[in-house]
Amino acid sequence: MTGAKRDTYTPDSLLAVAVTVFNERGYDGTSMEHLSKAAGISKSSIYHHVSGKEELLRRAVSRALDGLFGILSEEAALGGTPVRRLEYVTRRMVEVLIAELPYVTLLLRVRGNTDTERWALERRREFDHRIAELLRAAAAENQVRTDVGVRLAALLVSGMINSIVEWYRPGGGPLAERELADAVVRVVFSGVRG
Amino acid sequence: MTGAKRDTYTPDSLLAVAVTVFNERGYDGTSMEHLSKAAGISKSSIYHHVSGKEELLRRAVSRALDGLFGILSEEAALGGTPVRRLEYVTRRMVEVLIAELPYVTLLLRVRGNTDTERWALERRREFDHRIAELLRAAAAENQVRTDVGVRLAALLVSGMINSIVEWYRPGGGPLAERELADAVVRVVFSGVRG
């Protein structure tokens, strides 16, 4: 391919390019040609790294899902009172969203037209179920309200956190990130009334 | 067009078909051919109703925006304490989202590639600013927390409400709708801890 770069991509750096293109054009609207142009290497060079765009999607959403599910295995998510665990998980969800912003953004835009997309949606539902379980454990000990169903509360909490991808732009530094995580924890647990 | 229906569409019924297609395929991914097939009438029949797909988009997002901005002119949004007005607006946002689900869904997916899309994004931002103003008025009277910025709180509240389009499916009836609105008001104002 005339004008193509020498292919010095690693799996991670190629994935980063692909995710940017997927988020800009939508996964359905992205062709191998678009990926080739964005990466500056030929399509055959891309096929040297991956079997096709669905493999790139699978790797990208896996990275987001691994980040999110990883939270649930962290020490503070496993021990302590249910409400403390829930608070920890809420904070970490915001942190993972910020740390893996393009990957989580892509995960949240997946609509379910391919096996990989359906699998990603299923894994998202599983994650929300895990949040609902934490809420259920906290409700059983009267640490959270019981007049809102745990499944609905889990969807509302996830929805609030996920909506951050719509407007958050990196660059505020660790302090801004900490403030955002603090704000989300406050609003989720005590509401705007405080 | 062979097999085409006689064109008995009203502006509203044609809009309903277009919005369904836009939500399924994405606005960018929808051609006049797709709209013609979905409506079962020829493209020239569609052009008899509208100048093109951007006019359909503008009408559709206008319907969602009119619903949302209309809330702010309702009596209970204009009178009473700021926190009561905010509570009223929160509840009505959920109700409008449910009543105009496909239109609000489309509005929330708009990304900004055309004049109409950029205008819709600008109007959404304006709406969030109005919510932030209500929060600011409530904070000035110590009716809401002041340790989270009003702009951020407005984005989080809107984000929670907007996320409902991702999973809500109509058919639960007025009671289910009421329960959802109640739950959102509770979580927004008092959090999951209650």
From TrEMBL, chains A, B:
Keywords: DNA-binding, Transcription, Transcription regulation. InterPro entries: Homeodomain-like_sf, HTH-type_TetR-like_transc_reg, HTH_TetR, KstR2_TetR_C, Tet_transcr_reg_TetR-rel_C_sf. Residues 31-50 bind DNA. It holds the Pfam family TetR_N. Residues 8-68 form the HTH tetR-type domain. This is TetR/AcrR family transcriptional regulator.
